[in-house]
Amino acid sequence: MEELDLLKKDWNKNNPFPQLQEMDIYKMLHKKSSSIVKWILIISILEVTLWTAISFCFNTDEYLIKNHSEFMIPYFKVLTVVNFIVTAVFIYLFYKNYRTISATNATKKLMADIVRTRRTVKYYVGYNLGMMVLSAISGFVMAIMVNPKIQELSHNTKAMVIAIVIMIVFLLIFFGVAALFYYLIYGTLMKRLYRNYNELKKIDL
Q: Which end of the chain has a smaller Cβ tally under 10 Å, C or N?
């Protein structure tokens, strides 16, 4: 934001053309906001690509068939399809937000677009974290139901309790790492967007 700060300082030095200076600041905020939303789109696509590649490394169907639990295959297929559809919708919304912000030429409209983009990202992050927790819980339940080694523990209450505690701890760690990732990546971009929004509010006064 150094360029923007320099413009603002120059603006305060009794500039005889305040309207021109205001437009310069708007153009800079517009460019920065458009760039941020573009990065949100790129990162979300890379994220989906990564998870898709990881999913190909694990054959859930083969594992279920091996443990005579074919009845769970439709559940995981439906979960996968729903997840891809919802994620595709979010990516489309990010693309739409990017195109809208890039074409915006009014301060109030840009502010509204920033608010909408921030809301979409919050829903996206919330959905992904929720889906991760659901997938992890489903994986644990599946392991308890079909894994012979874990089923053997059911005859030993103490061992079973320890196994469940370990699973819960693992789930919390997994969720914490995922939340930290989203906070560092999307949270940083959202802070920059919000900073741009506040600067636009000053111009619009």
A: C
